Amino acid sequence: MDFARSDEEKALAEALAQILGDVCSPARIRAWEADQVSFDDGFVSAVAGGGFLEAGLSFGDAPQFGVLAQLEEVAGRFLAPQLLSWQSAYAAFLLGDHPLASKVASGQLVAPLVPGRSELRLDGDRLSGAADGVPFLDRASALLIPLPSQLALVPLPQQWERFGEGAVADGLKAELVQTQSLVPQWRLTFDQTPAEVLAVAPDRSAQALNRLRTCLAAWATGAGSQAIELASAYARERVQFDHPIGSYQSVQNRLVDAAIQLEQARMLVYRAAALIDGGDPAAEDVSRLAKHHAGKAFAQAARGALMTFGGYGFTVDFDIQLYFRQAKEAQLSFEPRPSWELVPGFRS
Amino acid sequence: MDFTFTPEQDAFRQEVREFVAREVTAKGRDKLTTAEQHDEEFYKLLAERGWIGMQWPREHGGQGRSHVDMSIFYEEMSYANAPFGRYTGSVVFVGESLTVYGSEEQRLKYLPRIARGEITCCWCLSEPSAGSDAASISTKCEEMPGGGWRLQGQKIFTSGAHRADVGMVAARTNPNVPKHKGLSLFLIDMHAPGVTVQPLWTMGGWHVNQVFFDGVELQPEALLGKKDEGWPNIRVTLNLERSAIGKVGLLMRMFDRIRAYAAEHDVAPALKDRLVGLRAEIEALRWLSYRVAWLQDQHQVPDALASMSKLRSSELMVLISDLGMDVIGERGAERGPDAPLGGEAEFLYRNTPFHLTGGGTPDIQRMVIAQRGLKLPRD
Predict the structure, then answer these.
(1) What's the pLDDT tens digit per position in A199-213?
(2) How far is CA B331 from the centre of its chain?
(3) Would you call B12 an interface residue with chain A, using a CB distance cutoff of 8 Å?
(4) Chain A residues closer than 8 Å to B277 by CB
(5) Of A299, A316, A334, which Cα lies nearest the Cα of A208?
(6) A98: which DSSP letter?
């Protein structure tokens, strides 16, 4: 048993934080939102160039998924697009030596479809149906679509009308959907869309979903923790009634309760990651709990943090509103609430 | 992070689990609802196996085990709902405190006897006018001209004092300095002349105690730690108290029992859905508690994390007992072993004020987390 982070892990997390501080500042996030783009070239090249996407891919088979979860927790602090989550999950669908793997690692192939938010059927090599909540479409060179025992690849043209309604490929329409979150999402309609069908090993799908849940949970934990730190810093500085507002218990308690939930989420994330690394089948249960709890914890933290800022929190001038708007989306995306029947007892 | 237990720890868990399956009887569990909350025969069996104070060095009567080992033991015992009510006061409050700030003579005098189950101990801190503000205690201990001390005052909410042989008493030794200074700790004989214990009955069906000290004479060596410098040590003991993992084992037990009941009965889906969040939180707290124990093994004092663990686990006691009674429905408030779920949800619900306030109220835990965890200002 060892709950400490190694010096190597700390250095890696610090390196990512430095990169994100440059390429994913609140000003850049605001600019992306204004332009309705998922992120810019600077972001993806910095993250991919730093080897972080590649690291995520190699973790598909290497027993270091816990490190990737740490990195995604750092990314969450910056509200960085959840590239590590998606790339790691989709890399896990693929075998390590698959030709597409290098494209995923380099960030050339960025196009996740949210599992569970699509109703697609495959007739031969043609896809039909609809998919919801698709992020990063504007950065995509292809769509990777998880099916029960297969992965469908739909290439996208280099240039297409990315925003608004319209056909983006043969038999594929995309509609930009406005949401509360910072990241644009698309609704896709497939009508006999040509696709390349890749065989996927039966256990790959479960592994990929475990990774996705855990990474998204790590991201939410990091984002929530940063929201609490922003609020705590403000509460130490802001003076009302001649005292810093952070000295008032009504302010403290709101932040404390959220911090406890986040610490619990952190334990679930790293427990799930350890189970994934160990190839333990319990990873499915714990990753599900982690995703569920971390989403709730982030939402509670974002609201509690925002309230610390009083009326200022409601204005777009303060960064805390970025966290608040992202939190609910993070909670609701991908398996927001598992059925109680999927949640096992401890010993029964 | 490495969440794995060593093969030795896995074997130890299995040994404890088999032991409680064999030795914790329904009759023994019934004692949890009495004034004793303790089964003497069962406690002797623990002592025979060396499990009382197992984390202490061998020369002090222990087995040189880790705090993580102790947490494994605690989890298994509480999952089995074992009647060992005097363990916490003796081992965690007094015994562990001795290992941190007792003299070697005091360790050798008390720890082996605690480990053998020959004596049990109680922690005398709270007073009628000094509850959450523990540093405001007014019990006095005066240094006598010829050496030794004289103890005068009153304590309250003292668990296990009616059976304890040794009391660890916080008293004011210097009234002329700020309240956090001038405090000292003493180890006293609870059977000594001048010590009176009176029950203070709770709605849990068992009692805590009031303890009166009327001119109790103490030898010089009764002083624990340095004179007038007791407050930091009191904080150490409070931290030890808060880091106990016992509540998580009980939460796990309750969850499994309620889940099984819900699966077999016609229970509203909305109630079943409440199981999901509880399962996630209990799983998280289990590992948070092991993390606290592991940090203690690294000689750290994780006070904010310990308070988080203590606070949230006691709050989950409220939520899970409430859910248990809701799931049972109209018979949910029935008491006793013949009630649904063996009456355990009802009993826990009735005892939640104890879990919430024992070791410091939720308000105090939040204050600790705010100031030491989030670094928010005191004023």
Answers:
(1) 777 777 788 889 889
(2) 31
(3) no
(4) 292-293, 296
(5) A334
(6) -
